[in-house]
Amino acid sequence: MRLPLPSIEELKEARKSTRKRPMPSQDPLARMHNFAEVALGYSEEDALLEAARCLSCKKAFCQEGCPVDIDIPAFITKIKERDYLGAARKIKEKSNLPAICGRVCPQESQCEKYCIRGKKEEPVAIGRLERFVADYEIAQGKSDGTGVNSVERSTREPSRDSRVAVVGSGPASLTVAGDLARKGYAVTLFEALHVPGGVLMYGIPEFRLPERIVQHEIEGIRQLGVEIQTNVVIGSTITVDQLFQKGYVAVFLGTGAGLPYFMGIPGENLNGVYSANEFLTRVNLMKAYLFPTYLTPIKVGRRVAVLGAGNVAMDAARTARRLGAEEVSIVYRRSAAEMPARHEEIEHAKEEGVQLRLLTNPIEIKGDDAGWVKELVCLRYELGAPDESGRRAPIAIPGSEHSLEVDTVVVAIGQGPNPLITATTEGLIANKRGNIVAGENGETSRPGVFAGGDIVTGAATVILAMGAGKKAAAAIDRYLSEASHD
């Protein structure tokens, strides 16, 4: 039964509110034992009351903070008018992935950071409203990535002869593919794994970003006319040079940063030590949490230490809790103020019983006679002057060595690019970290080859990768248009 909607008086009161509408979520005691989505999404009433807080500023500073330039006041106005499908269409003028972005983008450091209300109070919950309209559209069965009713939709045929290859299927690549398909290009997207989605599928847990949401958004990209080929490793199955030989006139490289970094301390080769990439891929993509229904084993034991304090570290720690670990610790050499993870993810982790062992840094992992992890040796730290990143540099405290009993260690200190493509592509320049060198609009040293997202910048956010994808798509369009006039 549909609940009554807010009255005019309630909307007027909501407009005066200094606080965001809270996000409904699963109870922590329940959710730490399941992989269902934690945040449940706004109801229609929540969305209307939160939208009422938007001032519809003529100069939309929030839009300036959006890497893909969504007209935020316009889509929120559509919510106020209860035209939720219109709101979804407005978002999709700029973004092909609203249900994803509404869930995982760090709005607090982007659009919401620039919200006028946020100067003296809490900003409008732009991300939660984006999720609401995207989910509404999905629930109504009227989403194919373009806002067209699913009953009426059919895969578009390209209107141009130019063929573009897009390598990888993460957020940058999906954005490039969608934008170029809208412009009429014949686009083929190549994914190395057996399902498309890249980091959206293997790197982000089901409880934060459900697989059905990712695949729904990707289906929208397919409906724009994009061909998706899986199990194709560019640089091995086929090279970039061979793509050009096959008739592709431009190539976009969006293969992300999937090569894990380790600390280089003794014991990292012991059984029970995982990179966060392996740990999360086994669980997210290969469904280890449903073993033996899915034949992917994973061992966590009773005590887990996760090294690092970014969003990936929080994902790994919260996953370990759901896999049955009784004691899960985030081990981080700086203080809480320097933790790079989103505040929301840190709070969710704490609610689920994850401990924060701050100002602590591992120096060795010790194992038992069978080669399995049993102990993490650490030093305590204090903070000194700021380093080149602007954060206060951690300094070891002499004589502070101590040990933690652990069964599993997950290393989540970052990742870099796989060197396969740069090693197999003639004329493609990479920097000393292995990232492809590209201009502001994705142009690389190789004519016709563009790159964007984590493969260029190093690990970053979904929405920043999408912003890079939009710039690259526009640059590819200009490049091909100019070539056709030569």
Give a description of the structure.
By secondary structure, the protein is an alpha/beta fold. It has 3 domains: 132 residues, Alpha-helical ferredoxin (Fumarate Reductase Iron-sulfur Protein, Chain B, domain 2, Orthogonal Bundle), CATH 1.10.1060; 164 residues, FAD/NAD(P)-binding domain (3-Layer(bba) Sandwich); 152 residues, 3-Layer(bba) Sandwich (FAD/NAD(P)-binding domain). It is 33% helix and 15% strand. The protein contains 18 helices and 16 strands. The strands form 4 sheets. It has a 5-stranded parallel sheet. The chain has a 5-stranded parallel sheet with strand order 6-14-7-8-9. Strands 10, 11, 12 and 13 form a 4-stranded antiparallel sheet that branches. Helix 5 packs antiparallel against helix 6 and helix 5 crosses helix 8. The longest helix is centred in the last third of the chain and has 24 residues. The chain is globular, with a radius of gyration of 23 Å. About 2% of the residues have low confidence.
Task: Describe what is shown at a glance.
The protein is of the alpha/beta class and 486 residues long. The chain folds into three domains: 8-139, Orthogonal Bundle (Fumarate Reductase Iron-sulfur Protein, Chain B, domain 2), CATH 1.10.1060; 163-257 and 417-485, FAD/NAD(P)-binding domain (3-Layer(bba) Sandwich), CATH 3.50.50; 262-413, FAD/NAD(P)-binding domain (3-Layer(bba) Sandwich). The chain has 18 helices and 16 strands.
In CATH terms, the superfamily of the largest domain is FAD/NAD(P)-binding domain
Q: What integer value in Å does the Rg equal?
A: 23 Å
In the predicted model, the low-confidence regions spanning at least 5 consecutive residues are 144-154
CATH architecture assignment name of the largest domain:
3-Layer(bba) Sandwich
Please give the CATH class of the largest domain. Answer: Alpha Beta
Report the end-to-end length measured between terminal Cα atoms: 62 Å
Beta-strand content bin: 15-25%
Looking at the structure, the CATH topology of the largest domain is FAD/NAD(P)-binding domain
Give the % helix. Answer: 25-40%
Largest sheet: 5 strands, parallel
Helical run tally: 18
The rough form would be described as globular
**Largest sheet: spatial strand order:** 3-2-1-4-16
